[in-house]
């Protein structure tokens, strides 16, 4: 009896190493996805900063009576984004921009480079009247 139980324990010795190898394989497979996800998050933050800067500059230009879309486009480009749309909602200027994410592993899979979009909004104080 003692001999049989010793043989069973001895036969199951390699099963733990198979599970460990499987888990290590899963972790290694997830690394490229995590790298690309972090690049997407960083790109979105940069696009949001560009949209916010363009919205603030456009609002100042509105108060000065200049060309808001030209300023929004200039500030978007200076911050590495592409200007798409500017509109006014009530007492706020909204600017929408996009930016391509330079993902490392998505390109290698043959997929299109993701484009991240963001909208920046700059509100005017209550003492400013907007007439159109």
Helix and strand arrangement:
Elements: H1 2-11, H2 15-64, H3 68-78, E1 82-89, E2 92-100, H4 104-108, E3 115-123
Antiparallel strand pairs: 1-2, 2-3
Helix pairs in contact: 2-3
Descriptive account of the structure:
By secondary structure, this protein is α+β, with helices and mostly antiparallel strands. It has one domain (15-123). The chain is built from four helices and three strands. The protein has helices spanning 2-11, 15-64, 68-78, 104-108; strands at residues 82-89, 92-100, 115-123. It has a three-stranded antiparallel sheet. It is elongated. The model has no long low-confidence stretch (mean pLDDT 87).
Instruction: Find the count of extended strands (DSSP E, 2+ residues).
Output: 3
Mean pLDDT metric: 87
Largest beta-sheet characterization: 3 strands, antiparallel
Q: How many domain units?
A: 1
Estimate percent helicity.
55-70%
Q: How far is the N terminus from the C terminus?
A: 95 Å
- Widest sheet: strand order? 1-2-3
The total count of helices amounts to 4
Uncertain parts: none
C-alpha Rg, in Å?
Answer: 27 Å
Give the SSE string. HHHEEHE
- Cα shape: elongated
Structural class: alpha+beta
Beta-strand proportion: 15-25%
């Amino acid at each position: 009896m003692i001999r049989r139980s010793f043989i069973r324990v001895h036969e199951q010795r390699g099963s733990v190493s198979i599970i460990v190898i499987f888990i290590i394989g899963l972790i290694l497979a997830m690394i490229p996805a995590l790298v690309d996800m972090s690049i997407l998050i960083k790109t979105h933050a940069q696009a949001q900063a560009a949209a916010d800067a363009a919205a603030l500059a456009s609002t100042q230009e509105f108060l000065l009576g200049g060309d808001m879309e030209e300023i929004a486009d200039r500030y978007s480009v200076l911050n590495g984004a592409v200007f798409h749309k500017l509109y006014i909602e009530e007492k706020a200027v909204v600017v929408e921009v996009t930016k391509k994410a330079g993902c490392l592993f998505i390109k290698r899979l043959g997929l299109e480079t993701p484009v991240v979009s963001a909208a920046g909004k700059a509100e005017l104080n209550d003492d400013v009247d907007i007439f159109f």
